[in-house]
Amino acid sequence: MNLRSLLPMIIASTVLLAACKPSSAPPAAAPASADASATAAPGADTATETRIGALVISDASSRETPIAGGTGPGFMTIRNSGADDDRLLAASSPALASVEIHEMSMADGQMTMRALTDGLPIPAGGEVRLAPGGLHLMLIGIREPLMAGQTLPLELRFEKAGAVTIELTVRPRG
Ligand SMILES: [Cu+2]
Fold first, then answer.
1. Ligand 1 centroid distance, CA of 67 (Å)
2. Bridge-partner residues for 71, per DSSP?
């Protein structure tokens, strides 16, 4: 009798698009009030905000991505305090091959993802959240592995407000 015939098999697979799988992405965004330092010092959280024209960009983050050449998500909140609609046209970074604007939605019980090729509208007086399970930036061709705590420069180009460079804070997975 050969007991060794029952050797376990380990299948290692790499799913480069895991960043877009809803099951692997519990919501990372916490309300600003959860930050105790922000309540202690008024305005202390402005360091995480970037203003360009009528727009305020906050909570910009990405996920730890240990594989060079892989993909990852970009999350943020964009608030438009102006009287005119604006639109996020494109994003880019020297640390990335390219960036797409993606939308995830349920269709026939399946999570699907599509690129918004006409950009992302930012309505006047409104707020658009890019967050796990919904809108996100797709960071494509990450040149160096992204480790938690690091920041990643990202240029955003808006139709009316123009271009601005923000920093995505890399957060741990899960
Ligand atoms: Cu995506």
1. 17
2. 140
Is the pTM higher than 0.85? The answer reads: no
Distance 76 CA to ligand 1 centre (A): 14
User: Tokens 């494509």 belong to which residue?
Assistant: 140
Task: Encode pLDDT of 6-62 as tens digits.
Answer: 333 322 233 334 445 443 334 444 444 444 333 333 444 445 899 999 999 999 999
The helix (run of H) or strand (run of E) holding residue 35 is none
**SS3 of 48, please?**
helix
Q: What is the DSSP letter of 38?
A: H
- H or E stretch including 15? none
**From the CA of 3, how far away is ligand 1's center (Å)?**
46
pLDDT of amino acid 105: 87
User: Under a CB-based contact definition with an 8 Å cutoff, are residues 158 and 140 in contact?
Assistant: no
Domains in the chain with CATH codes: 48-171 (2.60.40.1890)
| Separation of CA 111 and ligand 1 centre (Å) | 11
18 CA → ligand 1 middle, Å: 9
Structure-model confidence comparison of residues 91 and 33, the more confident one: 91
